Amino acid sequence: MHTFHLISKLQQSSNLWMKKQLRRVGIFWRLNLSFLLLLLTSSLFLTFFSFHQYSTEINLRLDRYVSLLVQNVELKAADTMKTYEDIALRFYDDARVLAAVSENARIGSPADSEEAALTEQNTRMIEYKLYTMSQNRKYIENVQFVTPGRQYRMVEENGFVRNGLIRDLDGFYHSDFYLLPQKQNGYPVWMDDRSQSHTFYRNDQSVYGIGNTVTLGIAVYEPTTRNFLGVLLLNVNLNAFSGSIDGYDAYKDGNTFLVGKDGVLTWFNPSILAPSFPSNPDLYASMLENKSGITRTVIDGRKLLFAYQQIPRSQMFATYIADLDVLLANARRIRNLCILVLICVVIAAFILSHYVTISISDPIRRLVRVMGKTADGRWTARYENSGNDEITILGDQFNEMAEKTNQLIEQVYLSEIRRQRAQISWKNAQLDAMLMQINPHFLYNTLDIIRWEAMYEANGESPVTQMIEKFSRLCRMGMKTGSNTIPLSEGIEHAVTYLDVINFRHSEKIELCLDTQGDTDTLYIPQFMLQPLMENAVTHAFRNVNRGCRITLCSSRKDNRLLITVEDNGCGMTPEELDALNSTLERSEASEKGIGIQNVHQRIRLFYGDSYGIHITSTPGKGTTITITLPIRTVSENMTDSTGG
């Protein structure tokens, strides 16, 4: 109890000290500085807090979208690789070809003409098989099969040799192109070594090797004995991966690359303004260690956003790199615009507060000066009114009081002078007594009573304030941005408020009849569902009807479903119009008519499924009934989490 009294006394003391300090400053500066302080504090907080939240959200979404980009590019590249791996498996799945390879390996060097003929027959079969694997595949540059003793090339049925030749076969046996597929024990492996342009040639006369390719290698084994037969090699042109970026034109502010251990293999939709892939060997080593990731880094003085994703069964990566200053340029422009708007608003508000303060302080100063003159005995001084506010009322009351006082003083003083000059000292004493009764304390109390009385008499409600209150409530409801469902009672309140606002502009009011069953506070529906249907009825149903307009809003439960009907007694629709509207509801694209209803219908279906939504019936001249079917929900749900946005 003692502590409570101590706190109360401290609070009273602090209040008195604060009031005393504030009273030392004039009204003009007190109001101006307080307005400016409040305005700057709130404006700066809202501006920079909103921008911080906005920037944070942009960065989160940027990371998410860029990560999705490289993941999808990686998936499309992996799908492309899977296509060529399936082509390679045709060789492995052909039992005759594998038997021919095994037989040639067993014969080795032919000892007689019969073995030579058999070896030649098997070779034609194997090499023609290699040729057929590349048919109708424009991105396959070369298909070869290399055994421990020889290499098989693509040969047409007529004996014409196609692309593909390994000149240094002994050196090839020591390269990754031959050894790495064997380490994978028959699983496909993709290799992007630059040495492939010095390994694979189109023919004996070619000066330059096959370039701009990646190599698919698969070790082939005899199915029954699992004896190693050789390595199947496909040189695939990098243009085969050009479709991996299709559908991502929105990411043109950056560059997307397909990167191998020796650097960039190919790029997709390159932009000169966007940064290129950095020549940093440590970067690839970090990528190889982490497999995937997204990071912000500084390279050559530029702040970069870098994302990467490794492609399975290879040492290749789908990467995206962009300049953060370019990506965030719009956000910074918005920040600068917000600051500019803030400065303009502060200047405009300060000018407004300056004139508002002057409109209060100047009349009070003039009234104080007039009161000072009367205190000096100049009762002829009057306050000149120039407004229609409470200060004007105080001035009028002061002028009236001063006029009456002056008349009284003049009447008493003159009559006493004429009647008895000898008693002037007594009259002066009487005048002094009278002046003492009109003291400042009495005057300020009187003015304060008049001020509060005037404020009391001016207070009141009017249709205009009711209209503003209804409309502000509707706007406040419309500014909700969440994606959660709301109670049915709140949706009905939104619809009722909307119709109340609409009725302000109609001489003949639209009647709203409510018929709800069950507890509307425990049933949840999507936001902004009923108001578009009410708006549709007001706009279309009553376009040719002037009086007797009525909308009936009903809700009921049937099995595990919530049925909501919005029925009007308007002009209705013809069967053709009704069929056209119902068909519009089933289309995914937007229509020029019924956009609000279509939006509500599609949101319901996206959230709850195709068995729910809107059904419309109508009779010309009698009206239209819109039935909404929803599942029973007794808790709020987040529609964004359920629908992906």
Taking the sheet with the most strands, its summary is: 5 strands, antiparallel
Task: Name the average pLDDT.
Answer: 77
Helix-residue proportion = 40-55%
* Portion in beta strands: 15-25%
The CATH superfamily name of the largest domain is Histidine kinase-like ATPase, C-terminal domain
Q: Any idea of the CATH class of the largest domain?
A: Alpha Beta
What fold name stands as the CATH topology of the largest domain? Heat Shock Protein 90
The total strand number stands at: 19
Examine the secondary-structure arrangement and name the CATH architecture of the largest domain. Answer: 2-Layer Sandwich
State the strand order across the main sheet.
Answer: 2-1-7-6-4
> What separation lies between the terminal Cα atoms?
57 Å
User: Total domains, how many?
Assistant: 4
Query: Structural class, from helix and strand content?
Result: alpha+beta
As residue ranges, the low-confidence spans are 424-456, 590-594
| Radius of gyration from the alpha-carbon trace, in angstroms | 45 Å
Number of helices: 18
Shape: elongated
InterPro entries: Bact_2-comp_sensor_kinase, HAMP_dom, HATPase_C_sf, HATPase_dom, His_kinase_dom, Sig_transdc_His_kin-like_C, Sig_transdc_His_kin_internal
Catalytic activity: ATP + protein L-histidine = ADP + protein N-phospho-L-histidine
Subcellular location: Membrane
Enzyme class: transferase
